[in-house]
Amino acid sequence: MKILIVDDKRSARSVLCSMLADLPDTELLEASTKAEALAQAQVASPDLILLDIRLSNDPRDRGGLELLSELRDAGSSVRAIMVTALTEMAEIREAMHLGACDYIIKDELSEEVVLPIVEAERERLQLRQEVHRLHRRVDAKWGLGALIGSSAQMESLREMITRVAASDAMVLIRGETGTGKELVAQAIHQLSKRRQSDFVAVNCTALPSTLVESQLFGHERGAFTGADRRKRGQLEVAGTGTVLLDEIADMPTDLQGKLLRVLESQRFLRLGAERETPLRARILAATNANIEQLIARGEFRSDLFFRLNVVAIQVPSLSEHLEDVPELVERFVQDSGRRLRFSDGAISWLMRRPWPGNVRELQNAVKRLAVLATGETIGAADIEQIVGAATCVDPNAEIDRIAHVLLNLPGRLGSKLHLIETAILHHAIEVNAGNKSAAARLVGLDRKALDRRLEKMGDGTVARSSSPPSWK
Fold first, then answer.
1. Domain boundaries in the chain?
2. pLDDT > 70? residue 401
3. What is the pLDDT of residue 340?
4. Quick count: other Cβ atoms within 10 Å of Cβ 154?
5. What is the model's pLDDT at position 137?
């Protein structure tokens, strides 16, 4: 704790310093003028100021009040205790209006008076620091700080979260398994006015269809066999907080209609109850499914989809922001509790891996390395040995994923079909060292069909490198 003592008289400063000298973990600073005090406050950032109202022998001097006013104008919230004479009560009241937290009368100056006041300020400072530390931990685990990455995709995601958190609009969070949809919901909650209330996640897949309704809405005693007591549902448990309906696409069809009515009326009925209960929580939903396809097959209600999809947030797959892999690995290593260093080759290996399980798969890979690696430096060979080769992916799913990424590229790039075909043919010829017959087999064409495509687009389009391959 840093304490700045401001008094124009050296003797007064010495008395206060002697009283506070034995306080543990305390640094005492001194200033005799307003200018010195402002400089000390700027450089040392004290936690507490003991401040005399008059900083000269002039009875009209108000240097202490002017100092306090200038500190407040500069945005400083440093705590200040006025040390003054009993005759200066008008100035004391003014000091309290300027934000002073307490005052000490000089005639009563003693350790019995000063130390309890300073100790109380120390405890308040420690409590404030602990609150800040907990806020940082909450943000790192559940807020925007949990969404790691500096890529444009992650910056855009954080911006969208910040915007929707300020409202109570319904939000549908979409993304592949392992991308962090629940973290997005948690961040929305933490940034909203509801953050002091509970966040409740309900996994619509994990519960049997017969229990989902009771889990959501609750039930009265005797509502069904085995209901031996009244139970509050998650919509009620959340209070004025936030409820995440995770994997909403897996919700039983009959329950979808009941949920729609709840969202429209903002009221729900416990099983076996006669009176409805007001819905006070905000509802968020998340899914990794293609809901539009489910609607087309009659497996999901379109009216419920439109109700949930007021604002849609698409969480990017890891393959869409592989440049964030180094930051993700660094965070996961910190969380592992073990000192590990990944070589450049190891990071490059990780950035080339497809990661069908997304960020969750990468996190588990780092955990496995933290447990099984024998050394502190992780190379590509260590990852190959411990994590294994890249996970096999469904070719059709991978093609769908790539198509989704390409179609979301900026429109100013021109014909996307032309760009895709050009890139595929370029790489096919490149990996076959310029052998067009081998390249044709790789892309599923005969040699003549490949030649026609190359002729149509122009050789210069395909050979994009400074040293084009020698085609055979």
1. 2-134, 147-314, 330-386, 395-462
2. no
3. 92
4. 20
5. 63
Please calculate the CA angle 89-90-95 and round it to the nearest 5 degrees.
90
pLDDT in tens, 4-23: 999 888 988 898 998 998 88
Residue 204 has pLDDT above 80, yes or no: yes
pLDDT at 299 over 70: yes
Could you read off the pLDDT of 53-91 as tens digits, one per residue? 888 888 788 888 888 888 888 888 889 998 887 677 788
Topology annotation, domain 395-462: Arc Repressor Mutant, subunit A (1.10.10)
The CATH H-level (homologous superfamily) assignment of domain 147-314 is P-loop containing nucleotide triphosphate hydrolases (3.40.50.300)
Q: How confident is the model at residue 468 (pLDDT cuts 50, 70, 90)?
A: very low
